[in-house]
Amino acid sequence: MGLNKGQFYIISAAIIILVLTLIQISLREYGTKNFDFEKSYNINYFNEIKREISISYFLENDRSIENFVDFLGFVEKNINEKRFDFDSVSVILLNTNNNPSKLNLTVVNFLDEPTEITFLINSTTSQEKTLYIDKKQTNSTLFDVSRNEDYKISFSTRNGFYEIKLDLIEKDLHVLFSEILIQGKNIYYIDKFEKHIFLQ
Amino acid sequence: MSFLAEVSLSVILISVFLVILFNQNFENSMSTSKSKNTIFSAISSIEKKNQLRYFIANDDVEKINKTIKNSVPNLKNFYPVVYNKTTNTTYIPDLSNKKNVYTVEYIIAGDYGNYNPKILRVFLWD
In this complex, is the C-beta atom of B30 within 8 Å of any C-beta atom belonging to chain A? Predict the structure, then answer.
């Protein structure tokens, strides 16, 4: 028994509607992918993390690391709300007039898992230290240094090998290195920055 | 009319109707994304001139409003709201009767010498 006319109309209309709905969904996906909006947001996050050290450092030196960790948490929460992932590894170096023969190295782990990083500092006697940092935690160590000498600290994260060059002089030195990764559907943004601040 | 012609005609009519309908939805989607890009670029540009950060850190919605209006004079339907880590620190307007409401965000760590993380969320509508 064949289909009658009415059934043919209904089946044809249903097929057409289905096809056009699929086309519409594809066009909407194209519409949203076609703009660099998410990239602009990522640049905002990156630049503001970089700027945070200048904002909170000078008047709140004793809370500088806490403020930095706090801000990373704030940024991560905002990024997660947009259904993206935020990963970051930061290294903070301090050499102060209060303790000029020591270089304090702190790692801030904002990955989703614990990490272990080995730091090598070139000096007359080579120093190498390995830090284990739990996820969303910090850990610190000390290196022996001398003022008026240059140093190079090298280390690897899961995304790259890095070297930080230091010129120690008769001033407080604060260095912030941060590697940032933001990823999600159709988004993969990775960048790093290094900032040196000398204080009296 | 033959049976085949009748079927073809009905399919064509439905197709034309649906294409017109879906094209409008696509244009709306593209237009929203373009507006978002324009507003974000404007906010970013204003902030680089050191005008916006102080206003956001101090919840000065009036000045934020004025600054954005000066930068994007054609923009009519928008309202800025400032948030801290947990909640809004300025008034959120009732936009339940507005069409196609969307937002653009800009994050700051604070103003210089004052760690005070905030989000500027600009609500826009058609």
Answer: yes
Domains of chain A as residue ranges with CATH? 37-199 (2.60.40.1930)
**CA angle in degrees (0–180, nearest 5) for A159-A162-A168:** 150
Q: A4: distance to nearest CA of chain B, Å? A: 10
Can you tell me the distance from the alpha carbon of A54 to that of A85, in angstroms, rounded to the nearest whole number?
Answer: 26
Find the domain containing B64 and state its range: 3-124
Residues of A in contact with B6 (CB under 8 A): 5, 9
How many domains is chain B built from?
1
Q: pTM of the prediction?
A: 0.79
User: Dihedrals φ, ψ of B97, to 5°?
Assistant: -100, 10
In this complex, how many residue pairs, one in chain A and one in chain B, have their CB atoms less than 8 Å apart?
A: 98
Q: Do A54 and B10 touch (CB under 8 A)?
A: no
pLDDT at A40: 76
Mean pLDDT by 10 residues, chain B (126 residues): 69 73 62 78 83 89 91 88 94 90 91 88 90
